[in-house]
Amino acid sequence: MSLIKIAIEILEQYAKTFQERNPNLYLFNCVMHLDEATPHLHIDYIPVAHGYKTGMETRNSLTKALQQMGFAKAVSKKENETVAWQQREPAYLTDLCREKGIDIEVLGIQRDSLTLPEYKAAM
Questions:
Q1: What is the mean pLDDT of residues 8-31?
Q2: Nearest-CA neighbor of 21 among 73, 87, 88?
Q3: Which of 2, 94, 95, 121 has its CA 20 to 30 A from that of 18?
Q4: Are 65 and 25 in contact (CB under 8 A)?
Q5: Interatomic CA distance for residues 96 and 83, integer angstroms
């Protein structure tokens, strides 16, 4: 089986299990792109939290949705619900890849933090 077909199988498995892993992130669109160098998914979801005491019982809130999915409350800007979720999802995808014998090479993660004048100069 070709590497592209294996990648498609892995991405399909990831997409099919997204809602199960993330019950408070209501998936409304998922598109696989095969027209670029790396097959990838574009996933659109709405974070939804339940159980508010005042106002509407159900609201749009990523932080509360992630907490209701079991992620610990934030202790700092670098240790919060979103960061924990952003670490879990790639770890799940990596496990799927390893099961199929694929090693993931991560590129372009580190970005420089530029001031606005530095960014304008770089552009």
A1: 97
A2: 88
A3: 2
A4: yes
A5: 21
| C-alpha of 87 from chain center | 8
In single-letter form, the type of residue at position 49 comes to: A
Q: Which backbone phi and psi does 84 adopt, to 5 degrees?
A: -60, -45
What mean pLDDT value characterizes the chain? 91
- Residue 92 near residue 15 (C-beta atoms within 8 A): no
| pTM of this prediction exceeds 0.85 | no
Residue 75 identity (one-letter amino acid):
V
Query: What's the average model confidence in pLDDT over 15-27?
Result: 97
The bridge status of strand 25-33 relative to strand 40-50 is antiparallel
Q: Name which of 72, 93, 92 is nearest 83 in CA terms.
A: 72
Beta strand segments in 13-117, E: 25-33, 40-50, 58-60
